[in-house]
Amino acid sequence: MSQVTWRASDELIERVKSVAAQQERSMNDYLTWVLSAAVDPDFAAEGAERTRERLRRAGVLAPSGEPRQRPDSTAVAAAQRQASGGTSLAELVGDGRR
């Protein structure tokens, strides 16, 4: 996970803190939520559409690009089963310590 430094006016930071507190979110969580709404057309958390509309009107909404299809749930389940087989990490580490 990366970390970002954000420079803004004291007034804006206080407004963001206030809105985050009203939504019972940390400032980090709130900023992550807003930025997700700005750049991810599939983001569908509560209130995201209203936020996306405000960002669109402000001209800061990222272009949505080509529509993406979600993978077939059966194929995902099969891939998960296949990925869970084999030697576990604990076994590999244990073997390396003997």
* Sheet with the most strands, sense and barrel status: none
Mean pLDDT: 81
Q: What multimeric state do the chains show?
A: single chain
End-to-end C-alpha gap: 33 Å
**Any idea what the radius of gyration is?**
21 Å
- Weakly predicted, low-confidence segments: none
The helix-and-strand class reads mainly alpha
User: Helix count?
Assistant: 5
Estimated share of beta-strand residues: under 5%
Q: In one word, what is the shape?
A: extended
Per DSSP E runs of 2 or more residues, the count of β-strands stands at 0
As a percent range, the share of helical residues equals 55-70%
The sequence of SSEs as H and E is HHHHH
Q: What's this model, at a glance?
A:
With 98 residues, the chain is mainly alpha-helical. It is 59% helix and 0% strand. It has a domain at 10-58.
Structural overview:
The chain is an all-alpha fold and 98 residues long. The chain has helices spanning 10-22, 27-39, 48-58, 73-84, 89-97. The model has no long low-confidence stretch (mean pLDDT 81).
Lay out the secondary structure.
Elements lengths: L9 H13 L4 H13 L8 H11 L14 H12 L4 H9 L1
Helix pairs in contact: 1-2, 2-3
